[in-house]
Amino acid sequence: MISVKQAIDLVIKNCKPLLKEVVKPISKSGNYHLYKDIYSPISMPPFNQSAMDGYALNLHKNVHYKIIQEIKAGTNSMPILQVGEAVRIFTGAPVPDTANTVIPQEKVSIEKEGIRLLTGIEMNRNIRFKGEEIEKGNIALKKDTKLTAAAIGYLSSLGITEVPVYKKPSIAIVNTGNELIEANEPLTYGKIYESNSKMLQNALYGLKFYDITIHNVKDDYDKTYTTLQTLINTKDLIIISGGISVGDYDFVGKALKALEVNQLFYKVKQKPGKPLYFGKKKETIIFALPGNPAAALTCFYMYVYTALQRMMHREITTLPKVHAKSNSTFKRKKGTSQFLKAIFEDGKVTILEGQSSAMLKTFALSNALVLVPENKEEVCINDVVEVILLPV
Description:
Layout: H1 4-14, E1 21-25, E2 38-39, E3 49-50, E4 54-57, E5 64-71, E6 85-89, E7 101-104, E8 108-110, E9 114-117, E10 127-128, E11 139-141, H2 149-157, E12 162-166, E13 171-176, E14 180-181, E15 192-193, H3 196-206, E16 212-217, H4 221-234, E17 237-241, H5 252-258, E18 262-266, E19 270-271, E20 277-281, E21 284-289, H6 293-311, E22 321-326, E23 330-331, E24 337-345, E25 348-351, H7 361-365, E26 368-372, E27 378-379, E28 384-389
Parallel strand pairs: 5-6, 13-16, 13-17, 14-15, 17-21, 19-24, 22-25
Antiparallel strand pairs: 1-12, 2-11, 3-10, 4-6, 4-7, 5-9, 8-9, 18-20, 20-21, 22-28, 23-27, 24-25, 24-26, 26-28
Helix pairs in contact: 1-6, 4-5
């Protein structure tokens, strides 16, 4: 059995970035990372552009200017201004080549045949010059850049409609257990409603992973073996829920061994989630999580989350951590690390009642986990503890 730190280190070491390219429409590329450098197909702005509503001038020493035309945004006319002439212009409109500055409208007075400047104005003011943001052929965004809303807006402004990005992993969730039924079925004695797949699927959705399939497997060795064999050959990441212990009807471990999966660790000195399995065959990553829902979700956030970040080229691979004073007391036997469901707010953390690995109600109220290290028996009020912030 290994420590939490050792387990996380093994996940980081053995999960490599996916080196697969996929082309996505720009509108659906959010939170992906660029697979290669993107070059601008145009200069931006594509023409000299007015930065405000006002008047484009061909400067001279007099304060009086004759208005010869009006230019709105989207206009493609290019009037020729003589010295002492001006055009009425609006934000985003093209500035004529014969204009050499733009004066804001509030700094002029209107006269019968034109305008009079109320203040001095220098050359090249209030003009966004062609190529000021980027020139045609230059790198717009570098490889590995995360496509945020701003990045998508920027590339869209350059007329880019598709981008090459790193493929997100294809993921399979495998449920095991004869006792599991769907929520629309009658709840007969001895059965329970299946929840782990829905919980894990939505945790993945929250992290922007959508290529997910769900597979339900009864407690049967042959079925477990064939299902896992197919998924290992077709998926990047497999998350198994339940069946990893050593009971008479726990077939996951046996099937993984028969399939010659490289077991990287099995069992971690932690609570909840001690019977956690992590393995790899070729490039396919395999986690077998405990069947108890709270234990499964804890292991997902501590280990599967880290694997996903590594696979997606993320520099930060674990959930954010802070240190905070505890509003609560908690006693337990030392010897294992323990993750406690908690609420973090206003710089302090409250450990909640109901820490059973089989129960999700407390988890549903939590926004954090308090990590109690192996050698600590008690958390007291005002103790400074490590707090892991859960995705919201």
